[in-house]
Amino acid sequence: MAFSIRRSLAWMTISQAGQAVTQFGASLILARLLSPYETGVFAMAAAVAGVLGMLRTIGLSNYVIRAASVDRDFLAGVFTVNAVLAVAVSTLIAGMSLLGGHLLGEPGVRDVLLALAIVPLLSSLELLPSACIERQGNFRIISMVNLGRNLVATSVMLAAAYAGHSYMSLAYGQLAGALTAVIAINIAGRHYASLRFGLTGWREITRYGIDMLATTGVMQLYMRLSDFMVGWLLGLHALGLYARASGLLTIMWENFQLIILRVIYVDLVAQKRMGLSFRSSYLRVLSVATAFLWPAFGGVAVVAGPLLLTLYGAQWVGAHVALSLLMVGAVIGTSILMTWELFLAANETRRMVRLQAIQCGFGVVAFGLGCLFGIAGAATARVVEAVFNFVLYRPHLARLTETTLRDVLPVMGQGLVLMMLAVTPAGLVMLAHGWSPSAPLAQVLGGIAAGVALWVIGLRVLDHPLWGEFRRLTGRATGSPVVGPTQ
Hints:
Number of helices: 20
Number of strands: 0
Strand content: under 5%
Oligomer: single chain
């Protein structure tokens, strides 16, 4: 079956929509079963595991996808490097469990880390079949496996939390999800599954790994250090609140990222092989992203208080200012969408290393200063960092995509118009009630509904590319003729 962007996006949308609903529903239940402190215990343990796990963030899956050719010896070399890293990471996490619990005076951190130490070993068995299936563009299988992983992990997590396992329920969920994914992907991709060791291409794999570790690994380290700073400077209760706010952003951003950018990366690699320009793909993805994400992020920023109070309860309302600020930062961050995918597809990982070192250095200083002013200050630092990142990366995006500000400003202008249409009604409601989290829910919902209606009208009036995709989908659903090229 030939690779189809729209078909792949459809499968990823189904999968990620299911996962988003599941994650969101689970977060509502967990907010009532676990306290901010219990959530903070897991967040701190996950931060420790994440720092050590950066050794595995060398992108071997993407290495397989972009390889000119793949054979048994090549895959054996990739599997060997991946297995060695998995064992090393698991050993380090298990070793750090004692130190982490001692430093924080919280045995829960130790217990969670011991459970999380098993996850890298399980995940190492997932790499080869998953990467080879994705290389073929078969996102149907990838989507179904991811959805199954999420459903099992969520079910186990909720059952364990309800049974009184506290913060350990989150760790049990991760273990169950990892085991499910390994079994499912090795059944679906049994032709690619292998435990064969080898050293073919190990030098090239190592060079690639070092580059990727210096990019994605450094970024993972930076994000985890941010959690450390909140936990150490402000306490585990504050970390729990901050994790709730950033967790909502993660649900929104990562699901979009996995739907769009994961598929687009495969297409970018194909374009690179054929010597084609990234310009058209970049502008279209940026147009769709700003039209969809900016109104969504802006809307959550406006109604953050009532959202947290209604969905999670009064104990989480303290995160509403941080949530609003994180969403503002996400709006700015969307302006440099696809940065990592473009650098990787263009084989410019060394340049990306230098740029991310600058980004992380600035971010650590800004975030550390922000933490001195509470979780709202930490979230403000994210906004400042987003502005800095735009200035840092935009010239390189222009070079890689052959675009100028004259090309992207109209796209962003349309996104800004659509965002203002979407958030203004709810914003007026919140303004009338002094931005109180206790603003009448009926009025807030009415403002949201009016904003959605105005957003749809705006898409139609602007004849936005996203409106064209809606027409295509509705045309197929109703059996009407679909006008335009297919992919």
